[in-house]
Design a protein that fits this description.
235 residues; Phosphorylase Kinase, domain 1; two-stranded antiparallel ribbon; transmembrane receptor protein tyrosine kinase activity; Protein kinase domain-containing protein; ATP binding
Length: 235
């Protein structure tokens, strides 16, 4: 259950989203664990928790998720906005890989909209810590799961999140109006659909890394030069 609530931060009131679950909800506990140790402008920030009676996660209140935003605001969202969303997602995802975290459920409905130029990845309940649990298999949404994960012996890794990123690119390009894989794109936007196509390569080792995706996308945006420099993570 999630609801809107006022919250005091640095002596002022702000609106936050309250996510309330049972104390033994594994996904909420996992989300709290991950969010408490990461910090990135394109990942939702955990404001606080409370475990009295039920487990509560406190996060900033946003406009909604990217899926609904794309459908609602498609008349004002430009190709540059779409590239920017993909760049910000790939920047956050390369940071997560640097932190040895695989999201495992990347999709437009798990991305929050701060404003038309700023998005944040959320919903880390299915995420896997590669440092402690390498070799684990975690399944997210059927339409976004990497093909190899349907084999019970496969493991989640950066390449499986890259596949999900490819599906998320599809959602962004089509304004979430088409079913992934089943409908053709009439006017492919080459700069970002390249990563959709490469993200779906059957051989996981041939898929691009998030750092590679980010660097290429950043170069195609006016603000890209602000990112490509000392912030670059190792590929």
């Amino acid at each position: 259950m999630e609801k809107k609530c006022p919250y005091v931060e640095d002596g002022r009131y702000i609106w936050v989203a309250i996510k309330k679950t049972s104390n033994n909800c594994r996904e909420s506990l996992r989300e709290e664990e991950v969010l408490s140790r990461i910090n990135h402008i394109n990942i939702v920030q955990l404001k606080g928790t409370n475990q009295e009676g039920s487990f509560i996660l406190v996060m900033p209140l946003r406009q909604g998720d990217l899926k609904n935003f794309l459908q609602k605001e498609k008349d004002i969202i430009t190709s540059e906005h779409q590239i920017r969303y993909c760049m910000q997602i790939s920047d956050a995802m390369r940071y997560l890989i640097y932190k040895q975290i695989v999201h495992c459920d990347l999709k437009a409905s798990n991305i929050l909209v701060v404003n038309i130029n700023h998005i944040e990845i959320s919903d880390f309940g299915l995420s896997v810590d590669l440092y402690n649990f390498q070799g684990q298999r975690s399944l997210g949404t059927d339409t976004h799961i990497a093909l190899e994960l349907f084999d019970k012996n496969a493991c989640t890794c950066e390449a499986t999140d890259v596949w999900s990123f490819g599906v998320t690119v599809w959602e962004i390009v089509t304004f979430c109006s088409k079913i992934p894989y089943f409908e053709e794109l009439k006017k492919p936007k080459q700069k970002i659909t390249e990563f959709m196509i490469r993200g779906w390569l059957l051989e996981a080792s041939q898929r691009p890394k998030f750092n590679q995706i980010f660097l290429k996308l950043a170069k195609s945006l006016p603000e890209g030069a602000d990112f490509v420099g000392p912030n670059v993570l190792n590929a």
